Amino acid sequence: xxxxxxMNDEQWNMLVQDVSKNFDEVTISRxxxxxxQGRVQELTMSAPQYVEACVHGNExxxxxxxxxxxxxxxxNCPVQGFCKHMMAVLLDYAYEQGRSVKMLVNAxxxxxxxxxxxxxxxxxxxxxxxxxxxxxxxxxxTEWHRLFExxxxxxxxxxxxxxxxxxxxxxxxxxxxxxxxxxxHIYMLNVHLFVLKKIINKRIHYSEYAYSHSxxxxxxxxxxxxxxxxxxxxxxxxxxxxNPDNQILLEQTLAYIRGEMxxxxxxxxxxxxxxxxxxxxxxxxxTKDSKPFSEELLKLEQAGVELGSSLSRFQWxxxxxxxxFYAARDEEAWELLKQAKALxxxxxxxxxxxxxxxxxxxxxTRLMRWLSALPYLYRSYRRDYLNQYMEFWxxxxxxxxxxxxxxxxxxxxxLPYSRRIYEEKLIHHARWKQWMDYHLSIGSDPSEFRVxxxxxxxxHAPEMLLPFYHQAVERHVMNKNRVGYxxxxxxLKRLAKLYKKIKHEARWEHYITSFSIRYSRLRALQEELRKxxxx
Length: 535
Known about the structure:
mainly alpha; 4 domains; 6 strands
């Protein structure tokens, strides 16, 4: 068996500690017996530090082990808490990783050797540290971060992320002298930005990322909480952006965020999100012209040249797209988004931001243009984003009725991703013929729909359903097997009711008679027709 993700020394030591802390000796012993008997089957890893397996005991039990968040691990056996099945899986996992099964079995009695893969740097003398801290009010942002590094250099790297965050912030805050309210706010924002960088570097080293590729964001609760704290510093009610005395620190903070964002891994977007928050909360509400955005575009262009091969081109393109958007240069923004799309999937929540922002400004024509452009800028959409997308179209058509034509064009452009929404909107707007033409073109079958889904057509345009049923019946008959014949008869019975509803019983009688004659050689079909009382 080959596992997708490997275990490093720090992760191994943490695992031994977790076993020692959470399993008693009896459970470890019983788990060891299960392991030796080969009861662990289908051991897999769907993500780093996430192990799944089946254990065959009196019954088959499913075990899920989250080695980053050990307490969330689970087994569906009757035992509450950590059980022998979980222990057996951990032992099998250790074996597959080439680790000492014996060490894990003896976790309660052995002292684990802690290996710190990070080189230990020499920490600054406490008195020297305090002397430097006294200069915080006059320091630059770069000097702040250098001081943060000196302050936390002796903090153990092999502790859990949430512990590191808590201890690092506490250590840095203890150094803080008395600051004005605004400077303290900027200072604490930078403290959290520093800790975010440290956690990201730690995760990269240990390959500990818990990441949602569909949303483009971390699924790790620790990272989520830290990012929420950072966002709070931007969104909280304060006068920081108004005060000219804060401008130097703000510009330096933006420069730091920009630098981190432009060198961030393409598949991560922590610093990109921070960069966007900075502009959304601290610049846009207080800007009356496009000058700040034009200046930022020049800085981004310059950074692109200076960073060379270390530039994260995806983030660079998205940042430029956002600045052009704020400056109302929409065509330029679309072109940049297209270039970003060519590199990798652009997160759909970014498109929702553009739409929310424009709708807040009540720029309905501009909103219609963005809604029309988005289908060509994104590869796919989740259903929840599509629902939001359609809400914006409904809003636009309320103010610009002529925009409905563009709405239908956009929905067609997004097929097949927009299929369900497209179908629902066709029904909602009573476009019966378009609904039927679409389903006939893609070979849909009436049996795919619940009765309630077809009721609007049966009520308002029942004749539209006739070719739908007729084509489906023919397809099932052409399968030339009993299953196909039964499906055809089921549809024929619904078709009979439909003809009766539109008061065309004579047409039905003519059709079913000619149908029976045409397929008179198919005995099994004739039997099913008789069983269905259609003959």
